[in-house]
Automatic annotation (TrEMBL):
It holds the Pfam family CAP. It comes from the Bacteria. It comes from Clostridium saccharoperbutylacetonicum N1-4(HMT). The keyword Repeat applies. Residues 221-330 form the SCP domain. Keywords: Repeat. InterPro entries: CAP_dom (IPR014044), CAP_sf (IPR035940), Cell_wall/Cho-bd_repeat (IPR018337). Cell wall-binding repeats lie at residues 48-67, 68-87, 88-107, 108-127, 128-147. PROSITE patterns: CW. This is Cysteine-rich secretory protein family.
Amino acid sequence: MKKAFLKKIIIAVVLSITSTTLLPLGISAEWRQNYDKTLSYTDGNSVVKGWMKISGAWYYFNFDGKMKTDWVSDNGTWYYMNNLGIMQTGWIKNDGKWYYLNKTGAMERGWIKDKEKWYYLDSSGAMQIGWIKDNGKWYYTDNSGAMQIGNINIGGKVYYLNESGELKENKYSINTSTSIKLGKNKEEVYGGSELVDISELPSLPQNYSISIQEAAENKILELMNQKRNEAGLPLLVLDNTLVKIARYKSNHMIQNDYFDHTTPIGEKWTNWLEAINYKYTTTGENIAYNNYDPFELFDQWWNSPGHRANMMNASYTKVGIGVIKGNEKYMGTQTFSN
């Protein structure tokens, strides 16, 4: 009788164990809210960390298991998660700037092609508009960020961009690289409508044919004011009289084969300002030249501490920029005043 009773107990225990192993565990993946109202995701008994695909969408969880939103950096690549934590792809707008995330969610930089149009994203990933310099070449993107080609009109001037979007100096359509001839007591501009009179200044020799690089002048002003704006400084206003002086100085150096703030006969730009009765209390001058790219003059000035100090001088409110091509070089002058 006792043996039979023990046998029943053993059978019951075996059946109990067997039936227990066949029951479901009762543990599943689920979202959990943390004490700080952040979210975590558990898969079984473990809190998920890193990437996790949930219901067809990708999420990223920090080292402590908390779901990330906004920008996420993973192995040097940036991703963007919306306010629900879902990884985004394609174009996104964040803090007023546009970014592009490819099919894997990775943020792109440099040139990208989307729907047959090219866009440029800077080193931070932000889409750029306006003039863009890349590998020594200039491109232009409109307000949508799309790269432009062919003839484009900007501020009443027409520029030519080839099929690759590159600015071609020798194919400007209207008044951007204008041939000029210096006559006695005046500077006459051919191909445009402007006459620049400098009657108080000596006429210059005509040893070399020259051309005004107006597109470069405008771009240098734009870049300089961008730097001043970023530094919280007032923007410089282009002053027509200072433009005449700056162009005169650049051409003076070309025609007389020198490069210096002081002319071979000991004159400076300040002497010319006084000769034309230009009123100021403070003034400065930057000069530079190269034989390959008039737009590069800005970088030459910016990379020089002394010249950069002039461009960022808070006491200056006006500027004239003169970039002249002649004698196989691009000669640039910036004349500042208040």
